[in-house]
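Hey, resending since the last one bounced:
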Amino acid sequence: MFKKYSTVFISAFLSLFLVSGAFAAENIASPGSRHVSVKDIVISESAAGIFKKDKYIYLFAEHLTFEDGVAASVQEGDLKIDEVSALGSVLKIKIKSESSKASKIVISNVSLYLDSSLPSGVYSLKVAATENDTYKDNVFGSSEGDSDEVKYITLIENFVQIAEKEDYETQTATVGNSYVDKDGAVMLPVREVTSAFSDKTIVSWDSEKRQVSIITGKRVILFKADSNVMIINGTSVYMQKPAVITGGRIHASLSDLAYALGVSESQIIINK
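The structure tokens again:
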């Protein structure tokens, strides 16, 4: 059983060691998954005043993308933090004022987008130890030497593991009322598919805009009938096929629905 937190102690000289999760992956994703929720991450000062005012902590997850909605709070000590931003593979945390007592930052509500082409294996979480145009005002940064050379120190070696297919039991959804269009695309009823994966999913239809909205976990998905563009968390994505209304229901293609929900196509089983 994994501990709730992955705890890293950071000294003024970047002497780092991992307290938990050193041998087992902290977060496991099924092959083909498009997003994975991540356990809380804790960063603790080893002494007061290490994290300086108006400086930033930069966490880097190579090949992975942090989704919006990340939160950070101080749960021990008197450090003040101003904001946390998800910028692609980087989490950026601003220090509002330094501590007089060693403090602990808890990073929560972390969700990662995974490119479907990522191979199975283990992916690490690192801290940037360089100050340059990319990592400005870095708490741990040094501008000495070649500023084009970015240095990182690994915080969590086994941060995310994308499992081998045969080692992971994937959730599936069985749906009916599908059909194959003239181009050979499998078209599926949106509400039936999305609701099959979670009873907490909210699906609503705006008849005036002819638009469906889906709220599932931290994802908000919008698309309109006869449009080939969907919006996922504010980002426009082209669909392989426009959504259509058939038999009084809005349908989208198998590939588009799988992409939107962050699952593989094989997880959607069509009941013929």
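The longest strand covers residues 152-162.

Sorry for the duplicate.
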